[in-house]
């Protein structure tokens, strides 16, 4: 579909795109860049890819450039590549927050570049190129947010690209994306980090017991609290306005439960717990999780 | 092993014990009681069990009586059965909190009864007798807390019983149990209910989007927020002292993350997120969760 695709940043997501593009034969040539030579060595040894130590070289002649690095790396990457981008290139990314990135791109005032952000809602708790796999995007949503100046045909091309990787595609404004993701992804991560930090205290004589008996609920949270720390501190900083707002709402809801516990208010507790029970069913009906008990791991 | 086992309350846990006892042939006779006639009808149609509308009848001649009802039902159950308990019976339960139950039992001042609480750390987000399965306790921990007056041989017998169901058994004081479980299970449930209530707001025009894009983290939490509301409001009330204490610690840790986000403090965020990453590895090494990405559901 593309004559050349360039992937910048090849961890879990970037390397999964590489694998899927290879498997589906979506490009004649693939070039990759990663600031870690360990990563590029791994890629050269396992895949047929072009690479270079010079990031501005790898984007040359690419019809599709995908930035799949942590958000804090974008500015330097964009400053390094922008003058070497092919005319009418599709420039995209895979980041979980869009507002700050969009500012950086607007400030560069790029000409003949179609900036269309991508966010594949896919991932695991593992990171690095060894953790990637071609089917990661299969049957998962990918949200696209297009810059006003992006060409409609190019938006269609990028939609087709993600569809070819198995994804369902949704177009959304940058602002809506950042708000919705603050609820579906960023809040759960903030909460998971806090709960694991609370439950596992190295000073506590019961620390080993807490690990041992974690199957009562805690283990579910440790999975996302194991996500890549660098990637996540960037997301929290870039989407801080939304995240702080939803964290305030969250604290209010937690306070409501605390008060109901303090007052031994059975009625209130039952009312809260019954309302959240329905949500699981809706998520399963929307095809967003398995209906097998315990995620099917039992 | 036992000539008669009696199970009071036959939802997910009680019916799973019934299935496992049948499968492993651990009793010559099994009697069951559930206050719902729908449940007892289901059991009579599917298993070879004795039952009665009169709860005090079903415990007669039983060597092992297992209460597997929600905690708030215990008092009435114990008042109804205590005078019909067989001499030297083992009286146990499957509840997630022990302090209040222990008080009720002590107040009854039972003679020739071996009160040894059980807590199998096993379950799913589904409830009711249809949701049970014989392998539910396989390779899971079961915590026993024995009353001072309980006979050592009887404690051994109950340990063997749970081992026969596939469980690993740990003896622990009632107090330690309630503290450890407040961290490993009760805190995660309080947090899960709060987060789902925050993320899914029927007034929000993005409600359907939040369901749709829940795979970015939220869906993990909806599983335990779908647990049986009645069972959980009882746990929160019975273990309120411990839960309120750990919720306070949790709020402090959440505040720390909030402040780091507000101050765009990369260093602090990285430090927190790196510390929680290690915990996942420890839980997997302790055999308490799968190491497959995304719980193996991808």
What does this 3D model show about the protein?
Two copies of one chain form a homodimer. Chain A has 298 residues and is α/β, with parallel strands linked by helices. Chain A folds into two domains: 2-172, NAD(P)-binding Rossmann-like Domain (Rossmann fold); 177-264, 6-phosphogluconate dehydrogenase C-terminal fold. The first copy, chain A, has twelve helices and eight strands. Chain A has helices at residues 12-24, 37-46, 55-58, 74-81, 99-108, 152-164, 174-199, 207-212, 218-224, 229-238, 240-262, 266-285; strands at 2-8, 27-33, 50-51, 64-67, 89-93, 113-120, 141-146, 168-171. In chain A, strands 3-2-1-4-5-6-7-8 form an eight-stranded mixed beta sheet. In chain A, strand 1, helix 1 (12-24) and strand 2 (27-33) form a beta-alpha-beta unit. The longest helix of chain A is centred in the middle third of the chain and has 26 residues, at 174-199. The radius of gyration of chain A is 21 Å and the shape is globular. Chains A and B meet through helix 7, helix 8, helix 9, helix 10 and helix 11 of A and helix 7, helix 8, helix 9, helix 10 and helix 11 of B.
